[in-house]
Amino acid sequence: MKSARTIARLLAGTTALTCAVMGPASAQEEAVFLGSVTLEVAGAEAVGDSTNPFTLSGMKTATEITDVPQSVSVVGRDTFQKERPRKLDQILGTVAGVQSQLYGYDSDTNWFYIRGFNSFDTGTFLDGLSLFSYGFGTFYIDPFLLERVEVLKGPASMLYGASSPGGVVNSVSRLPDGSTGTTLSFSFDSEGRATGSVEGSGTNGDDLAWRYGLQASRQDGHGMFEEGFEGVAYGAVTKTFQDGSRLTLHLSYTDMDTDHVGGSFLPYYGTVEPGPFGWLDTYYNGGNPDADEYRRKQLIATGIYRSNIGAWEMTDTFRAGFSDLQELYLYPNGFTTGQVPDATADVNRFVFGHDSYATILQNDLRFAREFDNGSIRHKVLLGIDARQYRLDQEQAFAFGTPLDPVNPDYSVTQPAVGAPYIDNISTQRQLGLYAQDQIEWGDGWIATVNGRFDVVWSDVEDHLGTDLKRRDDAFTGRIALARKTGDVTAYATLGTYFNPQTLSASSLLADPETGHQAEIGLKWQVNESSLVTISAFDITRRDVSQSYVNGGVFDSATLGKLTSKGIEIEANVALNDEWRLRAAATSMSVEIEEFASDPGVVGKTPQSVAERFGNLQLVWTPAAVEGLELRAGTRYLGSSWADNANTLKVGDAWLYDIGASWNFAENWSADLNVTNLTDERYTSSCQTSWGTSSCWQGEGRVITLGLTSRF
Asked: How many angstroms separate the CA atoms of 546 and 121, rounded?
């Protein structure tokens, strides 16, 4: 309680500091004006047609992609909303270095690896603040809430503290922008999902702008037993004060009540390779209707205050988030006759249930200014960042009845879960001080220096075992040098990171994970409508604890040391007035270099990691038909392994997508999309633990039709 009060006072204190230091200020240089209404700061506004927009993710100050000395990708709403993505990890499928939807179409969780490493737990951010998660204490972000999605690849601890070495995904909320109007949208797809939404925005006088949105979705298909519901609502307001300072408040609420999809946790044989019975059906559901429940209630409140204090631009971002998740699930766990089935084998099953209540409190206070020192230009950033995450959880399981792999009988009543085997309260608090200087001089030279010091307190109050408390601290940094020559920027950067182990009693006995990345790259802005980026990276991770889904339970294994080396290419190029090319390709080598408990896997690739993947899309906007856009593309998912020993291989897959958007009348538009056009059967990934493999079927063909009206 004393530590909790300390953090609470810290959060309150930084906000109080914000109010105390307010003084006469002019509007910030980064802001855009509409009369007296101040629009959002650069780096959070609509991307539009820009291929080199300002971003806040790589520097915490509004910086064009080409000036960030690290690989960063930005996907704007104008691009992804035409394709009607149902989940955030579908948007990420177009980004180089990101392996998304590893677990197929999971209707309630966004999954992604960056540069070969799991990044969905400590690499998920919203408006620059971490949505840290552990176990099932997660926060779900629906694309409806977002203006853009940004991916900063490689270590980001020098800016954000404890985080994934692969990189971070920073989602940017829909915020007031001074526009006025209402948008109605409807869509449905071939899997039975139907969605309706309304968004509105406007102003009140010369100093207040607002925006709101409501979305309701009928969840169905993909092997669900019964249809479900997802509701998302948000509201935001920006107030501009007489001294030029601005306060933005954003509140979102998510409610989900749905069954689990099929195609999950399936055995290797029957999914990747045929079993004695042949293949498991598409979206084979190993659950049971009377033992299937997923219920999420989530509230996220975010505030952003911006003001000028003399020559300093101050930004204070603060948040309180709550996630209440209850789940009951019957999931497959191999065969009754072992890993390799015989003709009599049934699918073995466990009944799993949990209650997880997570809260997160955050405050990031930073000050930025620019000044000249002779012929040298400095852009300086100073900040203090505090975060508290708390998870109150119970997990329990029971042995379910076996299920026939060919003719499943879902009428058998399943046993109730037993007494909890996990019952604890896990808390992690982080306090960090950071500084950055971006130095420009001469003919296009840019140097960037970052430093950050963090202290992390982790503790587990275990109601079934022994409590544990731990304190860790770390210094992380980044040094980078770039040179702009005409339209080309070349850069080299070296950064370090740290990440404390997961919040379990066993994991907290280990030292925090640490490591570094070296990266070189080129960013070529061919013209105002085109950008090509190439990067080569080398990441080293030490004291690694590999997390994975072990049936319905999160588990971990200490691997020791991992490396990831690779090349990424990303292009968004206007070929002419009618044709546009979007492409991304990743080739890397991810290797286990040390593993004390199993030396036999040294030199192998970690399970689930695809080392080759990419996508290519052509977009045609024919001049002969005003308002029409036609899209055709292909996605490639390279092979991976179902085990760290690399004995069970998961094959590669080529997938094809087509789409069309048409503004067919004033303020009316329609979108048609077909993903996995040929209905290719493939496996997204597999993981092996406890002597069995769990595999996830890739999503089959989905046809989506949407209609939008604006007024």
From this structure: 12
Q: Which of 357, 431, 362, 364 is nearest to 390 (CA)?
A: 357
CATH number for position 127? 2.40.170.20
Evaluate whether 433 touches 453 at the Cβ level (below 8 Å): yes
Q: Residue 441 belongs to what domain range?
A: 2-710
Kindly report the length of the chain. Answer: 711
What residues contact residue 12 under an 8 Å CB cut-off, 6+ apart?
A: none
3-state secondary structure of 699: coil
The sign of the CA dihedral 60, 65, 67, 71 is: positive
DSSP 160: H
Helices (H) and strands (E) in the chain, counts: 4, 38
Mean pLDDT of 509-536: 93
How many Å apart are CA 538 and CA 518, to the nearest integer? 5
Kind plus residue range of the DSSP H or E element containing 202: strand 194-203
Q: Give the pLDDT confidence of 249-293 residue by residue, as tens digits.
A: 999 999 999 999 999 999 999 999 999 999 999 999 999 999 999
Cα separation, 481 vs 493, in Å, equals 6
Rounded-to-integer distance, Cα 659 and Cα 310, Å: 51
* Structure confidence at residue 231 as a pLDDT band (50, 70, 90): very high
- State how far the Cα of 133 lies from the Cα of 649, in Å rounded to an integer: 30
Q: How many CA atoms, within 13 angstroms, populate the side-chain half-sphere of residue 657?
A: 25
Own/partner long-range contacts of 368-377 (Cβ < 8 Å, ≥24 apart): 368/60, 368/61, 368/312, 368/313, 368/315, 369/311, 369/312, 369/313, 371/311, 375/441, 375/442, 376/439, 376/440, 376/441, 377/439, 377/440, 377/441
Instruction: At 158, give phi and psi (nearest 5°).
Output: -65, -20
Strands in 146-153's sheet, in edge-to-edge order, are 72-76, 146-153, 167-173, 124-126, 129-130
- Count of domains in the chain? 1
Q: What share of the chain is helix, strand, coil (3-state, %, to 5)?
A: 5, 55, 35
Q: Report how far residue 47's alpha carbon sits from residue 74's, in angstroms, rounded to the nearest whole number.
A: 8
Distance CA(558)–CA(545), nearest Å, equals: 4
Of the candidates 468, 475, 477, the one whose C-alpha atom is nearest the C-alpha of residue 501 is: 468
- DSSP string over 78-127: HHHGGG--SSHHHHGGGSTTEEE-TTSS-TT---EEETTEE-TTTSEEET
pLDDT band at 539 (very low <50, low <70, confident <90, very high): very high
Checking if the pLDDT of 306 tops 70, the result is yes
Neighbouring residues of 313: CB distance < 8 A, sequence distance ≥ 6? 28, 29, 30, 306, 307, 367, 368, 369
Q: How confident is the model at residue 596 (pLDDT cuts 50, 70, 90)?
A: confident
Amino acid identity for residue 278 in this structure: G
Q: List Cβ neighbours of 456 (8 Å cut-off, separation of 6 or more).
A: 161, 162, 428, 429, 430, 471, 472, 473, 474, 500, 512
Quick: pLDDT tens for 89-113.
Answer: 999 999 999 999 999 999 889 999 9
In this predicted structure, what is the pLDDT of residue 506?
61
User: Tokens for 251?
Assistant: 């509140």
Contact 333, 551 (CB under 8 A): yes
Query: In this model, does residue 542 exceed pLDDT 60?
Result: yes
**Rg of the chain taking only CA atoms, in angstroms:** 25
Instruction: Tell me which residue has tokens 């879960």.
Output: 417
Nearest to 514 by CA among 554, 562, 555, 481: 562
